[in-house]
Specification:
The structure is a homodimer. By secondary structure, chain A is an alpha+beta fold. Chain A contains 22 helices and eight strands. The first copy, chain A, has helices at residues 14-24, 32-51, 56-65, 85-98, 113-124, 131-152, 155-158, 163-166, 168-180, 184-195, 209-229, 245-249, 256-259, 283-296, 312-318, 326-329, 333-343, 353-356, 359-365, 410-425, 427-438, 448-463, and strands at residues 74-75, 82-83, 103-105, 271-273, 303-310, 368-372, 381-387, 392-397. Chain A has a four-stranded mixed sheet, covered by helices on one side. In chain A, helix 2 packs across helix 6 (131-152), helix 4 (85-98) runs antiparallel to helix 11 (209-229) and helix 20 (410-425) packs across helix 21. Chain A is globular, with a radius of gyration of 22 Å. Chains A and B meet through helix 3, helix 4, helix 10, helix 11 and helix 12 of A and helix 3, helix 4, helix 10, helix 11 and helix 12 of B.
């Protein structure tokens, strides 16, 4: 009913096809290996949400918004606070992304879990949802956002849109709509409401507002599904309309990326998990510098300068020469390489204000140079360390740890979770949370994961 | 601290200049005639908010969102429900726009009051704000959104953005930030948070989601100011950054429209108020058809067909040939002209589902044709009525009622308020509300306006 501008001849009904698929697909239609990747996606997300929960970004958001929260049904993971489901979706989206340590769909640099898992775990605390249905919805939501991202990437991203927010809101709406049991028309409306809120600029990288994007996408996607269920109507063709998402926000529109092979080919199976707490493009440099440190042993102190031969995106996204804060450090390949070489660290502890200002790291950072090499694979780097004696040591990283060709094992996902979560809720609580997170696909009530988090925080509070 | 992409040489610090102005300006710096236009803007907005309050769009939004509302501090004007201030801002933004009957900044087709007044009246119910300060903040907010709109119009709008939402969120943030007493850095952050949520597609015209846009802009702008106050940081150059608002969402960026003559030239003084409950571009046709009806008297039944020679935007925006619902009727110049000629009506009563389907109106609607004439002023139209006897009657409208050259008088604003409000809250309550609305600039506590609205609804409920 919506618009009077016709789509060009031959344009498929992308929104309708996608909405139908979201509603029709059953958990059993999803191959086991994809379901298992969905579980890994969720476990990694829980660890990141807890790991980021004590960040000052989260304190500021809670200070501003707690006075407006409705009935406190839903947990802010890793904290004592509960909020209404919409606000909890926002907060968990912020916490899970604030350390830049979450998951990545490498084709689009979307961080898929933040918008989707934050929306549906908050929802799951308001009604009983099984772990099986939850993982189904999570995978469906991730599939939707990554396919929509593929259809407009890279033009959409190059233009300045933070694609985790802009595409993520569709994924959150899809996953929430699936769990709410929307009919197909309501799902089209939910996409309409979600799409019309698609937003978030890359200009925000390096500020608290970057992690606000997946949070708001989670909240807005959930809100869209709830409103559509209540009969709030919207365009039923928001993705493909001439004045809709893909045409307004991108010069590239490849509909086949959205509708071809739905249910056969799975973007949700391509998710990857960051071993290091910063933008994925710096990972080869950190991986290589840590290897170099291990190989050099005591001689690491004799490194005079570093030169990186890297993919062009490395300098474009993380070329900050003079970071002043921990957050800014995540956008400096120079800091990241220096810290990896001198401390062997790429975890959240490498990106604190204190470490970014540490004199010996600043000194080496200033002696790091980089070349953008368009022929280089984005998961690779060549590092040349010039030693004080004039010799050069070279390290070639073919594929960085955490890339598609070198994914984190379950043990590495667990270890990553353990390190960051223990800093926030302690080791005993982390063990309990890890245990239930890995079992979440089999839970009768997936909200149990959130309850274990809240109990852990309460016990820690009581003990302190 | 935000981005590493430099702005092109010569780009002024638009965000900083605008934020400084918002914080520095005092009520006494605003000329009396602009302050009075601010009062008219507010009175017209209150009438529209009450007038739209019983629409099914509002019922659906409340059904979905009331379960998530926080402490019920703030009124949904014209209804019994109260919600937390953020949700009330959303709901009042929806109600005040849902009938397409609100105010218009004609240069940009922004409807300025919806995002701004909705945000700050909801806020005013949470703390004491004088009518004087409220009108100052309203004018500042309107000025900000219209100037930002000017800087990117028409390219931004032509691309498909619903500019009332995309620019409105800045206005809401400015007005709320002013009343919250933000410092200058916080105001820049508030703009950063607001800008990164700028969204809303014209594809939504004709659906409930159109009025969601000013509502969400109000809510998001208020939220941005609250978060900035709590220390949630953001880009401090969101308007002018290469990956910020104006460059990402428009090919045109005219910074002078934003920063030149601040405090001297007032866009807020150019606001206009719709005499008819639909898109402004149809107003000349409705005005002319009502005049024609008056002139023809009984002969109106002999009109066989109508031809309109109109500005090109009329067909582009309101060319819907076959509207099925009242909302769609607002986007049909054919329906609007037929209804104005046959019933003399351009009020909300002309845009109900029933009237849009009335056989005699449908019959004449199908006999209305229109030509897009690029030489014609947007506030004018020539109407040729072909009579059954073969003769032709012509009506030339030089400037439509409600246009800048033919503004509504205070009495006409009052009458418009009275008609639409009485349908929702009754005549006695409407009189009380009108009385206090016109006095609002002098109130010690501007929230009194909202309280009178709530009392009126309660009394009506008790009487029923």
């Amino acid at each position: 009913m919506s618009g009077h501008q016709p789509t060009p001849p031959g344009t498929p009904n992308v929104t309708e096809i996608l909405a139908d698929w979201v509603i029709d697909i059953q958990g059993a239609d999803i191959p086991n290996e994809i379901r298992y990747e969905g579980l890994r996606t969720f476990v990694n997300w829980v660890g990141c949400a807890v790991g980021g929960a004590s960040h000052e970004t989260v304190d500021a958001a809670l200070k501003a918004l707690m006075p407006f929260s409705g009935k406190a049904t839903s947990s802010v993971l890793g904290r004592a606070e509960k909020m209404d489901a919409l606000h909890a979706a926002l907060l968990n989206g912020i916490t899970s992304h604030v350390l830049d340590y979450d998951d990545t769909h490498l084709k689009t640099i979307i961080h898929p879990a933040g918008p989707v898992a934050s929306a549906i775990l908050a929802l799951a605390e308001t009604r009983k949802i099984s772990g099986y249905d939850f993982i189904t919805a999570l995978i469906v939501g991730v599939e939707v956002e990554c396919r929509i991202g593929n259809s407009v990437y890279p033009d959409h991203y190059d233009r300045g849109w933070h694609i985790t927010g802009t595409a993520g809101v569709f994924g959150a709406a899809a996953a929430a709509g699936k769990l709410l049991g929307l009919n197909k028309q309501q799902m089209r409306w939910a996409f309409g409401l979600a799409g019309t809120q698609s937003s978030g600029f890359r200009e925000q990288f390096g500020t608290m507002t970057k992690s606000f994007h997946p949070g708001r996408a989670a909240q807005n996607g959930l809100c869209s599904a709830l409103m559509a269920q209540a009969g709030f109507d919207s365009s039923e063709r928001v993705i493909e309309a001439p004045r809709g998402f893909a045409c307004v926000m991108s010069d590239k529109q490849d509909w086949s990326e959205i509708i071809d092979g739905l249910g056969d080919h799975w973007e949700a199976g391509l998710n990857s998990y960051k071993p290091f707490a910063c933008g994925i493009v710096i990972h080869p440099a950190i991986d290589g510098c840590i290897q170099l440190r291990d190989e050099l042993g005591d001689r690491v102190s004799e490194v005079e300068s570093l030169h990186l031969d890297a993919h062009p995106l490395v300098l474009e996204l993380t070329g900050k020469r003079d970071p002043k804060t921990g957050l800014e450090g995540k956008f400096s390949v120079f800091h990241s390489a220096a810290c990896a070489l001198l401390r062997g660290d790429g975890a959240p502890t490498a990106f604190t204000d204190e470490v970014v200002r540490a004199p010996e790291i600043v000194a080496l950072r200033d002696a790091v140079t980089a070349t953008a090499n368009p022929d280089r694979h984005s998961a690779s780097v060549r590092i040349e360390a010039k030693m004080r004696d004039g010799t050069t040591v070279t390290k070639e990283v073919e594929r960085a740890l955490g890339s598609r060709d070198k994914p984190l094992s379950d043990e590495q996902v667990t270890e990553k979770f353990r390190v960051q979560s223990a800093l926030v809720i302690g080791e005993a609580a982390t063990d309990r949370l890890l245990d239930i997170a890995w079992k979440s696909a089999d839970l009768d009530d997936v909200a149990e994961v959130a309850r274990v988090s809240s109990e852990a925080v309460r016990k820690k509070g009581a003990a302190a």
